Amino acid sequence: MTSDTSIDIAIIGGGIIGICAATYLAEAGRSVTVFDRTGICEETSSGNAAAFAFSDVLPLAHKGMIRQLPKWLADPLGPLAVPPAYLPSLLPWLIRFWRAGAAKHYEASVAAQAGMMKLAEAEWMGLLDRSGTRPMLREDGSLELYESEAEFRASLPGWAERERFGIGFRHVEGEEMASLQPGLSPRFVKGTFVPGWKTVADPKLLGKAVWAYAEKLGARFEHARIERIEAGTNGATIMLADGTTRKAKQLVVTAGAWSHLLAKNLGDRIPLETERGYNTTLPISAFDVKRQLIFSGHGFVITPLETGLRVGGAVELGGIERPPNFRRSKAMLEKAKRFLPGLDPSGGREWMGFRPSLPDSLPVIGAARAPGVFYAFGHGHLGLTQAAATGRLIRDLVLGQNPPLDLTPFRPQRF
């Protein structure tokens, strides 16, 4: 059975990337329909750490993770975990990740990420203003914390790189550190304060508010599970789980961790893996956290939201089929109690989401092999941060305009 609805532009995926793409296209006067199986910003985009991480220009592959890998993998509840049964499936991706971290790729990777971040900040500030969501922005900065001089010294090369791209920060200790976050455990000997770091009041609420703006411009939503896509010279065909189909002149795939499965329908093989992230959102009264606290040695953050205190992060490379392992959320909460001795850990909501990640830590943004189809996925833990930039770039690609960024590092065919 086929729907007789003629769609101008279809977007598969109602997360923050999909709705930003829809918003930019709707602003350009195009008719857009977003398809999602659950709703707008109801899955991975609802439970992230709420950061606009514009200063996070170092790709994961170059953050020394390979050196840490053996130690982290030995701890099933540590910053990075791989369920042993999943390791054989993951191995090809890990090899690509290791290769992407080679010194010869460093300059190009950092330059691509820094360019994307500069565009992301400019586009988000504009979109917040146009959509009336600027009051949801928080500009309190972030505080990264170190438990030893050795850990602090190990962080310095990364800060030197950020300085190269004009990112402001200052190292703090003693009374200054305590004033930035009262009640810290004395185990933390130094910190780095990034005054330009931004967060949002609640990522799910921000996403829904941006979508409300897109709807006023004519964007539509259809609740549907997509089984398969096909594309040819006359446009794209979208096959739904209920047996119906939709036709679209142009198609944008922004389905997060499931995107590569749809891309495979069109002959594009993209090595996407899933960073499963965990968190617990506590009541606001749990602790008076002044700004996002970053515990990079433990792979998690604590973010004050208007809807609660979110303790989360860490990475579990385990695909999209395995059930959640909420012991990981509990392990982070136990650490949070030690790091903030007055924290009340009761009354929390546990959550797990799928971050779609590519081995070189750069998203796929560009045209598919099939005509009239575009991809925007694989942003890892930077989906919220880079969503407005991605929306702008997709708009330019769909409209045949020159994008403000060289998209060569992000092309889908790079693998």
TrEMBL record:
It comes from the Bacteria. GO terms for molecular function: oxidoreductase activity. Keywords: Oxidoreductase. It holds the Pfam family DAO. Coiled coil: none annotated. Its EC number is 1.4.99.-. Gene3D superfamilies: D-Amino Acid Oxidase, subunit A, domain 2, FAD/NAD(P)-binding domain. InterPro entries: FAD-dep_OxRdtase, FAD/NAD-bd_sf. Residues 8-397 form the FAD dependent oxidoreductase domain. It is an enzyme of class 1 (oxidoreductase). This is D-amino-acid dehydrogenase. It comes from Mesorhizobium shonense.
